Amino acid sequence: MPLPDYQSFMTPLLACLANGKTVKLRDIDADVYRKLGLSADQLKLRIPSGKQTYAYHRLGWAKTYLVQAGLIEQPKRAFCKITQKGLAAIESGAPINNQYLSKFDAFLDFKTRSKGANEPTQVNTTSIVSNNSDKTPEELLEAAVDTLNTNLSDEILKAILAASPVFFENLVVDLMLAMGYGGSRKDAGQATQYTQDGGIDGVIKEDKLGLEMIYLQAKRYTNKTVGRPDIQAFAGALDMHRAKKGVFITTSSFSKDALEYVGMIEKRIVLVDGAQLTELMLTHNLGVSTKHVFEVKALDSDYFMED
User: Fold this and answer.
1) What is the mean pLDDT of the chain?
2) Helices and strands in the chain, H and E counts
3) What CATH code is assigned to 153-283?
4) CB proximity list for 269: less than 8 A, separation 6 or greater
5) Is the pLDDT of residue 118 over 70?
6) pLDDT tens digits for 235-253?
7) pLDDT band at 132 (very low <50, low <70, confident <90, very high)
């Protein structure tokens, strides 16, 4: 089951604060999760950074929105308490979500706050509370980055396919080096020149001392799926070089038989398809440059500590 969006956490959070006590969010988070009926698997899901679970992340944003609307107050850092507005919201029996919170001017001010304070702002309250309302601001950023990276991956593949076969073979070696495998670019370049036989497109040291070598095969295809015969031929080429490890990289994809075959043989052959290739290039900044950097900042509580 998908995890409920952050708005779904608002009503149970208010219910857990209905006794009027001032508590830390961490003291009642388990009660909120029980009211929502979250499963153990749902509670294990973590945001991409891995720093916290999705459940606590969304609970935190639910609290933030309720605070901004005036349904919860924070008498001191990390503590929260329900207000009269919050109690009235519970008594109303209405679903507590962005649509409900939009009745409060403080909430609308929070949602439409702009740095351009001297410029007139036109507000569409319907779009404010409905557009992307199932995601927290950080999740919206993550989704935007995913969309940009998906588009960039398509551009990378098109650029690879437009380049020469030799360029692609060099790219494969560059990628292995960027991932931290040993040797130098000079050594790797020489390797690609003298191994253009037997189905080997490149050789790279697994470690800086070259105690073991990794052999590379690069196939620049568009619609053709790499099948088991191609992988068997590559395995045979590894035998010719008495090699135990190989990486087969393609811009297309692998057939089911090819994927099953590498799991049946003693040699260690890693298959990298087009999607994984572009993902690795993005991860290791190969063939891409940083266009914008956005910083998400949080309160430095140590700065505000008084002796």
Assistant:
1) 85
2) 14, 9
3) 3.40.1350.10
4) 231, 234, 235, 238, 245, 246, 247, 248, 262
5) no
6) 999 988 888 899 999 999 9
7) very low
Indicate the helix (H) or strand (E) that contains 304. none
Q: What's the burial of 300, exposed, middle or buried (CB within 10 Å: 0-12/13-18/19+)?
A: exposed
What is the spatial distance between Cα 236 and Cα 240, in angstroms, rounded to a whole number?
7
List the chain domain ranges. 6-114+121-131, 153-283
**CA end-to-end distance (rounded Å), the chain:** 48
Amino acid at 272: V
- Among residues 40, 73, 42, the alpha carbon closest in space to that of 58 is found at 42
User: CB of 106 within 8 A of CB of 112?
Assistant: no
Considering the entire predicted model, what is its pTM? 0.68
CA distances from 257 to 246, 254, 261 (A): 18, 8, 6
Residue 20 has pLDDT above 80, yes or no: yes
Name beta bridge partners: 217: 248
Q: Mean pLDDT across the stretch 126-139?
A: 61
204 pairs with which residues across the strands? 214
Residue 194: pLDDT over 50: no
